[in-house]
Amino acid sequence: MATRAVWRAGGLAVGAALALAFRTARPADVHAEFIKYASGRDSITAYIAYPERRDAAPAVIVIHEIFGMSDFIKQTTERLAQQGFVALAPDLLTRRGGTPAKTDSAVALIRLLNADTITQDLNGAATYLKSLKAVRGDRIGVIGFCWGGSQSFRYATNNPALRAFVVCYGAAPDTAAMRRIQAPGLGIYAENDARITANVPDAAAALKAAGRDYRYTVYAGVGHGFLRQTDKPLVADTAWSAVMRFFRENLETK
Predict the structure, then answer these.
(1) Would you list the DSSP string of 69-122?
(2) What distance in Å separates the CA atoms of residue 160 and residue 138, rounded to the nearest whole number?
(3) Residue ranges with strand state E in 116-175
(4) What is the CATH number of the domain that holds 151?
(5) What residue numbers bound the domain in which 141 lies?
């Protein structure tokens, strides 16, 4: 199911109210730290954020962009924790020395990663989360951004135990792989990002033909990576609200 978010002056009352409420709501306290978890014979560095709640929480694996581990990704884990989820963001460049300081170097290293090794390290993240008493091990989802959005989509084809997946302006895997997806999905896309967005209807149609639930929205007036940008905060906040609502529906209540 597709929707298109259109933004026009004078027609933002409802969206503005939702975004303002999301941005100004007092967040719950969170505890965040770097940890290491096992993946095969290696250990992977990750950033984890815990919500302040009395019961075990559902969890979300956060997959970084092509830039590797960043302040944006750490803030995203904390944002999820503020909404009641345990969030874990692995540094998928750990095996290559960790995310380097220079963006160009990180991008070059990302392009060298092996798909099977990425899956192994994401499986390790899921196993680690399941080992935590603070986590409901049967309620794990995944979200990714840019390159990580593509990896979130691909990981949903490889982990049938996932309860939800979110793709933020990432490319879809091939049709045969998508037939393996079991979890419901949510897509967050940008109007000014034809490289990615032009292919979304075909991917959504393939998922629908396979009997899978994949909802997506194309947000007008924004480009690739808009969730980390600050020039369209209302659009970004509304997209974030959709993400949190989707996770609550599929990880908390179902």
Answers:
(1) S-HHHHHHHHHHHHTT-EEEEE-TTGGGTS--SSHHHHHHHHTT--HHHHHHHH
(2) 11
(3) 135-145, 164-168
(4) 3.40.50.1820
(5) 12-253
Residue 34 parent element (H or E): strand 30-39
User: How much is the pTM?
Assistant: 0.90
Q: What is the mean pLDDT of residues 226-230?
A: 90
Tokens for 27, please give them. 């967040």
Closest CA to 233 of 244, 247, 243, 221: 221
User: Is residue 57 in some structural domain?
Assistant: yes
- By the 10 Å C-beta count (0-12 exposed, 13-18 middle, 19+ buried), 164 is classed as buried
231 DSSP assignment: S
Q: Does some domain include residue 163?
A: yes
Burial class for 196, CB neighbours closer than 10 Å (0-12, 13-18, 19+) = buried
Please report where in the chains the tokens 């209302």 appear, as a residue: 234
Element (H, E) at 124: helix 115-131
| pLDDT for the residue 230 | 79
**What total of structural domains would you count in the chain?**
1
